[in-house]
Specification:
Elements lengths: L1 H31 L1 E9 L10 E4 L5 E3 L5 E6 L5 E5 L6 E4 L8 E3 L9 E4 L2 E4 L7 E5 H4 L7 H5 L6 E5 L8 E5 L11 E4 L2 E3 L10 E7 L2 H4 L10 E6 L5 E15 L9 H11 L16 H5 L3 E13 L3 E14 L3 E20 L2 E14 L11 H7 L14 H4 L31 H7 E21 L2 E20 L2 E4 L2 E3 L2 E24 L2 E23 L18 H4 E23 L3 E12 L8 E12 L11 E15 L11 E9 L5 E9 L8 E14 L4 E13 L2 E3 L12 E3 L2 E17 L2 E18 L7 E2 L11 E3 L7 E4 L2 E4 L3 H8 L12 E3 L3 E3 L9 E2 L9 E4 L5 E11 L2 E11 L2 E4 L13 H5 L27 E3 L2 E12 L2 H4 L6 E15 L19 E2 L7 E10 L1
Parallel strand pairs: 1-7, 13-16, 50-54
Antiparallel strand pairs: 1-4, 2-3, 2-5, 5-6, 8-9, 10-15, 11-12, 13-14, 15-16, 17-18, 17-55, 18-19, 19-20, 20-21, 21-22, 22-23, 23-26, 24-25, 26-27, 27-28, 28-29, 29-30, 30-31, 31-34, 32-33, 34-35, 35-38, 36-37, 38-39, 39-48, 40-41, 41-42, 42-47, 43-44, 45-46, 48-49, 49-52, 50-51, 52-53, 53-55
Helix pairs in contact: 7-9
Length: 1045
């Protein structure tokens, strides 16, 4: 009994233990079989990724993400590893651990050589490209703090020089591709979503999907008569299949001038002018402390930018709706130099059925821009800030002083006042247009308002496999109003403001209709693409402009032409309308054998209404080939994984410098003459001789290139050598002497650009650290190889009234090189002066003046080469003293990413280019000057042999002493960003938040002594490199926020 009872107790214990064990096993199994959820996004765009495969490693258990990029999966244990994979993305493995939510950001798995590149009327893989094309993608622009696409592209591509025409808000940029290929405009052709545009100012970097620059003839020849200066293809973003997404980007910045140009202080200025023999009026009182006008004209200025987009779609329809607002005030002028831009975008694509796709890309932009005078000898605010008399205050606290009122040239005049009723300072010492810059800024009013609409719609039919037929029609409408008015004021006898208003209304309408077909054929290892099409393009410009004075009252509300008293007799009006058309036929053949041997042939025919009958049609062919050496059986890769050799040749044209009616004889009405009886007669007179032979500028280009990839494409690069020759330059003609009228444009002149381009990129990662380095290098030699045989040179831009043709175009020289007197030191004493003047006339120097070289200008033996001097110092002694073109350019970017942090530095440099300090003028000898004029001046024999005395001769200001090295290295951007962890975002519906700070254009390394070595020369090619008081590019401290929902 006892044993049975003991056994029973043991059995009951075993049963209890068994029950406990079963319960524990059940609980453990329940704990192991749990659910993990998460969301998958692209690290590049932040957008969610539908269709991502999520598998438990080592099993077949898995799922795929929904349209919203989310997933749910059951795991067996904490030790499970989830594998995420998606076409075009690098696979990701994540250990489950104790987590129930795992969000993943996936990186693109597309190497540089596998990228798809947009070409004219199509796309190509970069690995089989036979042309020279540089590309910038959306991800390269994503974190760049720039208000315009031009600025964002600076320094990013070899062979492409992007220079701000000014640092003033809204001023735009000048772009040269592979050097200056024309004596006129060198701006490339802009194609935005297939539409021809003449600028990109209305585009925000936030809108851009990619930018491709077609640099050689093989890539640009498909645009024929418009491709000589290169082509910039811009593709804007589109929606993607999946859940709708919201992207928002915000920036706020404070701008200041980068480096101060030091000018003479009051004591230095008075001492300098005393040495120069320049004296003030006998009764003028000079204050103990002066005005630093440079400090007065500059100020801190805000800027901000907001950009937002809504995108998404289904497998049939995708859409993107976006808008952005950008506003920027000027560091000179504040809201007197302000730019506002509001733009909207609507892009839609719809797959109607298997063979029909339709879509549209619409954009609208509205600009407001007010600006101040700059980079001109006559009224530039920056120039006046440098040259203004430091003894003059900004305003008088006790009314106009007696020495001004008693001066016979001044007296009781209409002196302007500030908003507090104080009179602005007036200098009786300054001459001409040099006057109080603050007063001048505050007397000018008005601005430019502009509306731009660009829209295109297309239908693409695919009736057969590989055949696509596209019809695309586009419309651009740009219109605007430009109004400016001034108060009546007096600052000196030549700085007088007239009470009046000027108004202009203008409109441009462009139509474009293109039809083209593309057919892909594959036969074994042979791949062929044939494309052919037609294009019709029309551009109509019109304007009406008027000026009226005096104003009824000097207030904004009445500063309009229709408010002018007796407007019929007190206003002047003018207007014009002109139309040009271009009809084109084009085709392209691309052949690819086994991705080894590549061939491309292009032909375009263009007919332009700008030319006379018989000259209207031009034909522009190109041919290119490539050999992918790395795909050969004999190729032993080693570190190489890709190597391609390519070459191209082709011809492009340009009519960018030709206006409608240019080839026709012109007659001017309103000619007044006196008849034999002394009566005035009104008639017309011929003003320009006809030139029915006027034709295209033609650019022939040869390119040899190399594309390569090392170490599984961690290091990729391109190398190009090119020769680009532009013939039949459009220059003013020289009619025979018996013709009494000037000639219009003729084709005469050749310019050649030779150069090399290198682009390198390296990217890798080490654990959580990702890093990338990009580098580009360009070296170009520019030379004019022929000019009009009737001229020694083509005259360029003047500086002031004494420096005639400071730039010129001459055979054997760079285009628009600097010309002036060559100096050989400084005269130290009268003995040196006497020895010099005994053999030279036309120049009467004193000790302390520069020694001007008398050049060889006389050909004594008739061999065509001057071998003797003429003994006369004159403009005939002008020689090359500098060039605005750099010897080489470079750009580099370093980017680091580590656990949510990102850091990048971007630098750009230009080396070997010169700048003329053109705001120092011989006809304004009494004005202020940079401080080095005082500090480095000659004072006595032996004091210096490099800089002249105070009050030196005119020739010093038209010599190489005004030319300075304009080389620079600019740190365009230093930016630090942080992406908030997804765990911090929780379940609030936000997929990404990034905050960042940026220093833009904060650091400039240069020897140039002016404000900014990056002188754009306005929009006049012959003024490139002349600093007449250019508005400097500001430095900006910027903060930003990016949010994606």
């Amino acid at each position: 009994m006892i044993k049975l009872r003991q056994m029973k107790i043991r059995l009951e214990g075993l049963m209890k233990m068994s029950l406990i064990l079963v319960a524990l096993i059940s609980f453990s199994a329940q704990a192991q079989n749990r659910t993990v959820t998460g969301k998958i996004t692209s690290s590049t765009t932040g957008e969610t990724l539908p269709g991502v495969s999520v598998l438990i490693k080592g099993t077949s258990t898995g799922t795929v993400t929904s349209l919203e990029g989310s997933y749910t999966i059951s795991v067996n244990s904490d030790s499970d590893v989830l594998v995420y994979s998606f076409i075009g993305m690098k696979p990701v493995e994540m250990a489950v651990g104790g987590r129930s939510t795992i969000d993943v950001s996936m990186d693109d798995d597309i190497t540089s050589l596998e990228e798809i590149v947009v070409v004219g009327y199509g796309e190509q893989k970069k690995s089989v490209l036979t042309a020279a094309i540089s590309s910038v993608k959306a991800e390269d622009l994503a974190n760049y703090s720039a208000g315009s696409i031009d600025q964002a592209l600076q320094g990013r591509m070899s062979g492409v020089q992007i220079t701000p025409s000014s640092g003033s808000p809204g001023s735009g940029f000048n772009i040269k591709i592979r050097g200056a290929g024309s004596n006129g405009s060198t701006q490339p052709l802009y194609i935005v979503d297939g539409m021809r545009m003449e600028f990109m100012d209305y585009l925000d970097p936030f809108e851009i999907q990619s930018v491709e620059v077609l640099k050689d003839a093989a890539s640009a020849a498909i645009y024929g008569a418009e491709g000589a200066n290169g082509v910039v293809l811009v593709t804007t973003k589109e929606g993607k299949e999946g859940k709708g997404q919201i992207n928002y980007d915000f920036q706020y910045g404070v701008q200041n001038f980068n480096s101060k140009l030091e000018v003479m202080n009051l004591q230095q200025f008075e001492a300098y002018n005393t040495e120069a023999g320049i004296n003030r009026g006998a009764n003028e009182i000079v204050p103990s402390s002066g005005t630093d006008w440079v400090d007065e004209i500059f100020q801190s200025a805000p800027m901000q930018r907001h950009a937002i987009s809504f995108s998404g779609g289904t497998d049939k329809t995708t859409y993107l709706i976006g808008g952005n607002y950008f506003t920027q005030e000027g560091i000179v002028g504040g809201d007197k130099a302000k730019f506002d831009r509001l733009s909207l975008r609507f892009n839609v694509k719809h797959q109607v059925n298997d063979w029909l796709e339709i879509g549209n890309k619409f954009s609208f932009a509205h600009f407001n821009r007010s600006s101040i005078q700059e980079n001109t000898e006559f009224g530039s605010i920056v120039q006046s800030g440098i040259l203004m008399d430091p003894a003059t205050p900004v305003v008088y606290n006790n009314g106009i002083p007696s020495w001004v009122l008693n001066n016979t040239d001044y007296g009781d005049q209409n002196y302007p006042m500030d908003e507090n009723g104080k009179y602005y300072g007036v200098s009786t010492l300054m001459q001409g247009e040099m006057a109080n810059p603050i007063a001048r800024m505050n007397q000018a009013h008005g601005g430019l308002n502009q509306n731009l609409f660009s829209g295109s719609g297309y239908a693409k039919i695919s009736p057969l496999k590989g055949l696509n037929i596209t019809s695309r029609i586009g419309l651009f409408i740009g219109n605007g109003k430009d109004r400016s008015w001034s108060n009546s004021y007096f600052l000196n006898p030549r700085a007088i403001g007239t009470n009046g208003v000027s108004q202009t209304m203008f409109e441009r309408i462009n139509y474009q209709w293109e039809n083209f077909a593309s057919y892909d054929i594959k036969m074994g290892e042979h791949k062929i693409n044939v494309m052919a099409g037609t294009s019709i393009y029309s551009k109509e410009d019109s304007y009406v402009s008027g000026y009226g004075a005096p104003l009824l009252n000097e207030i904004e509300e009445l500063a309009y032409l229709d408010a002018i008293p007796d407007a019929q007799s007190n206003t002047i009006a003018t207007g014009n309308s002109q139309v040009e058309t271009l009809n084109s036929y084009f085709g392209r053949l691309q052949y690819n054998f086994n991705d080894k041997y590549l061939l491309g042939v292009t032909m375009r025919a263009d007919g332009s209404s700008l030319l006379a009958e018989g000259k209207q049609w031009g034909y522009f062919p190109s041919i290119s080939g490539g050999w992918v050496v790395s795909n050969e059986d004999f190729f032993s890769a080693g570190p190489f994984n890709f190597l391609k050799v390519r070459a191209s040749w082709g011809i492009n044209g340009s009519l960018s410098n030709v206006n409608p009616g240019e080839s026709l004889a012109k007659v001017s009405a309103g000619f007044i003459y006196t008849d034999d009886l002394g009566n005035f007669q009104i008639g017309a007179e011929p003003t320009t001789v006809a030139n029915p032979d006027l034709t295209w500028e033609t650019t022939t280009q040869t390119d040899i290139g190399l594309d390569f990839g090392f170490f599984d494409d961690k290091l990729t690069g391109t190398f190009d050598y090119f020769i680009k020759t532009t013939e039949d330059l459009l220059v003013p003609g020289t009619p025979p002497s018996f013709v009494g009228n000037p000639s219009g444009l003729v084709n005469n002149g050749t310019v050649e650009n030779k150069g090399i381009e290198i682009e390198l990129g390296y990217q890798d990662e080490s654990g959580p650290l990702k890093y990338a380095i990009d580098f580009n290098f360009t070296k170009i030699n520019n030379e004019v190889t022929a000019v009009d045989p009737n001229k020694l040179y083509e005259r360029g831009s003047n500086i002031g009234i004494d420096w005639n043709s400071a730039t010129a175009m001459q055979e054997g020289k760079p285009i628009w090189f600097f010309r002036g007197y060559e100096t050989a030191g400084i005269f130290q004493d009268q003995t040196e002066v006497d020895a010099y003047t005994s053999g030279v006339s036309g120049y009467t120097p004193s000790p302390g003046d520069p020694i001007i070289k008398d050049q060889l200008t006389v050909d004594t033996d008739g061999d065509g080469t001057p071998d003797a001097t003429d003994g006369i110092i004159s403009e005939a002694d002008f020689v090359e003293i500098g060039s605005p073109h750099p010897d080489f350019m470079l750009g580099t970017r370093i980017k680091l990413e580590y656990k949510g942090f990102d850091f990048q530095v971007f630098a750009q440099g230009s080396f070997g280019n010169d700048v003329i300090m053109g705001f120092n003028r011989s006809d304004r000898i009494e004005s202020n000057k940079p401080s080095f004029f005082y500090e480095d001046r000659w004072t006595e024999s032996g004091s210096t042999n490099s800089w002249f005395r105070a009050g030196t001769a005119t020739q010093a200001y038209t010599s190489d002493l005004m030319v300075f090295d304009g080389s620079f290295l600019k740190i365009r951007q230093v930016q630090l960003g942080y992406n908030l962890p997804k765990a911090m975002l929780g379940n609030i519906g936000v997929s990404k938040v990034r905050v960042y700070v940026s220093l833009d254009n904060f650091f400039t390394f240069t020897d140039y002594k002016g404000f900014d070595p990056e002188v754009g020369g306005s929009t006049t090619p012959s003024s490139l490199g002349i600093d007449r008081g250019s508005y400097p590019v500001p430095k900006t401290f910027l903060t930003g926020l990016t949010v994606q929902f």
